[in-house]
Amino acid sequence: MSGLCGCIHWTNRPRHAQAAAQMADAAAYRGPDGIEAWSGARASLTHLALNVTAADERESQPIVENGLILVADARIDDRSTLQSNVRRQLRTASPTDADLILAAYRRWGTDCPAHLIGDFAFALWDPEERRLFAARDPMGMRPLHYRIENDRLLFGSDVKQLLAAPEVPARISEPMVAAYLQNRLEPLDWTFYEDIFQLKPAHALLARPGGSPETWRYWDVDPDKRIRYDDERDYVEHFREVFAKAVRARLRSAQPVGLFLSGGVDSGSIASMAGHLKETEGIGCPTLQTYSWAFKTLTQCDEREVSTQITDRYNLPSTPIDAESVRLIGPPHGVPDRDSPFMSHYQALLAEGLRRAREHGVRCMLSGQNGDLMVGSWIFDNITLLRKGRLKTLREELQAQHETLGLSFKDLIWRTLYRPIRAHIWPEDMLPRLREPLWRLWRTVRPAQSSAPPPPWMSENLRDAVGLSPDRKEIPSGLRQFARRRRYETIHSPLQRRIGAWSERLFAHHHMTYADPWADRRLIEYVMAVPQHQIFQRGQNKSIARRAMRGITPDAARNNLQKVSLKPLYEHALKDESPEQVHKYILQNNQYLNSEPLTAYYKGRLRDQKEESFRFWLALCLNMWVQQYNL
After folding, report:
1. Is the pLDDT of residue 438 over 80?
2. For 54, phi and psi rounded to 5 degrees?
């Protein structure tokens, strides 16, 4: 686990080993348990080891077998099924995760990623065929970047590894910066450096000499797959079974496993399920350590009244992290990584939690980050109830949604019935060439205010130099139902995938692997196959998870699970703790930002005259990044 990199020279140049070594050194934090390399006539591949499972401790990478060379950063789940399918291709009766990947390639070739369950990024070099094959897991939980030159291919877990190779210029990508400043974090294959790309989640890459690499999506949701039960309780039971598999797989560790535990449904369900598995069948790690934020002054942010009910019920060790003692903005931990200016407001707080977890010997840290995507986000499916004639249930749902959300019945009917009907009659992927001119014609009759003009602090030069094309959503054509399409879009949110990449890199800096049961491919497939009104019911967000945790999460906690915002901590950092630090970062002009409107906005925020703007945070992080690394 942890990291990989490599250099391929299509023409037999001798410097690939040196390049690979420099790339490995640039991300040495990914290899606390050793860095090993393989070099051949045209290629060098390097593995940076972080041992989490018992199999990792006996694994030796790069694997060299029958003319193929493999490096992998992976945790493969559902191992017994895969092992039985590739038993003839295996070299050992006790395979490691990398062994299973190589055996899967021997059986299915470049179709093998579709047969892998888990979190993974890997690269496989075939010297005889002179080709490199690589792939990344469906949710992009493990990173992989690449750069193609005339006679050379570079790849690595981190962007900084590619920048460390000889003759790679660190030229900032202005289109990416422009998109970022407007809170548009796609296309997902873009990075902040010219000619360095990210392999998108659920994609594979095949590179040969003399041409551009071929990339393709190897897995997607099957729009025709449906799961239907006569008894609604069966949906809950099935969800519980799939979620248990997801949690169990991520507890496979020879060292303690950690969990950032809040008072919300997502992490609370993980802790409860882990505790339940511990009692009923044992878990695959010595212990599950939990970490929760503690507040003495900003007590409205403290969620331990709920989370301690879970840790007490299952006797899970819990460590409070003094959130108010952490400086959020500026060094040492409140600055972006060299790879990207993007970071969370609470990066420094997470870093403190990871530091404490590392003291406890934790090598795998769990998060519930993707829970909102899978079962939250307030996605209504009232239209299905109407279509099926379940009018009594529809009336009850509208009443519950009205009481929970405070929306008028007129607004609810517009949002949950009219818009889905309109989208069903004319989906976005139906006759797109006709849709666009008709939309322009409509807007000449009914002009609309611009939805997202560039922020005022974005430099004129950047606005003039870069024209961004409209967002293009890639949704399987068979997903016709409004709620299913919304769920799909939410799961594949570019913002959330960027957050995942940032999280993985932050955890790796602390010698830990990042994992989230809510990102399990089996869970995605289940959630997308069931009727969406089973996910959101009775005006209650994450209804299916709450029902599935009945009898597992203590009722006193389950009835009060609700994520609390840490915004007051950020406001304190912005206004009281770090104003001098913030001014230092925003007062300097650069080719991307104008300091005058940025400073004016910040002064308004200090006087509570300006609304919170996530785009201000993005600009602040960009200036920190530019100054920190002299870009």
Report:
1. no
2. -60, -35
Sequence-distant (6+) residues with CB within 8 A of 616 are 455, 598, 601, 602, 605
Question: Count of alpha carbons within 13 Å of 26, Cβ hemisphere only?
Answer: 25
Asked whether 492 and 337 are in contact (CB, 8 A), the reply is no
Looking at residue 130, what is its pLDDT? Answer: 94
Q: Which amino acid, residue 92? A: T
**516 residue type, one letter:** D
User: 73 pairs with which residues across the strands?
Assistant: 121
Q: What is the pLDDT of residue 516?
A: 98
Q: Are 314 and 287 in contact (CB under 8 A)?
A: no
Cα distance between residue 388 and residue 381, in whole Å = 12
β-bridge partners, 366: 259, 515
Q: Please state, in angstroms and rounded to a whole number, the distance separating the CA atoms of residues 127 and 106.
A: 15
Model confidence, pTM: 0.93
- pLDDT for residue 445: 56
Token representation of residue 346: 């609470």
Alpha carbons 417 and 386: distance in angstroms, whole number: 8
Contact between 455 and 182 under an 8 Å Cβ cutoff? The reply is yes
Say if residues 8 and 207 touch (Cβ distance below 8 Å): yes
Instruction: Tell me the mean pLDDT in the region 474-483.
Output: 85
Average pLDDT over residues 331-339: 96
Choice among 11-15, 449-453, 499-503, 511-515 with the minimum mean pLDDT: 449-453
Q: 298-331 pLDDT, tens per residue?
A: 999 999 999 999 999 999 999 999 999 999 999 9
Share of the chain above pLDDT 70, in %: 94
Q: How far apart are CA 546 and CA 236, in angstroms?
A: 9
Residue 220, amino acid: D
In the numeric block, the tokens 């009722």 are attached to 555
DSSP 533: G
Residues present in the chain in total: 631
Token couple for 14 = 């001798």
* Segment 196-218 mean pLDDT: 95
The dihedrals phi and psi of 252, each to the nearest 5 degrees, come to: -80, 100
∠ CA 50-141-429, rounded to 5°: 165
The string of DSSP letters for 240-307 reads: HHHHHHHHHHTT--SS-EEEE--SSHHHHHHHHHHHHHHHHT--SSS-EEEEEEE-SS-GGG--HHHH
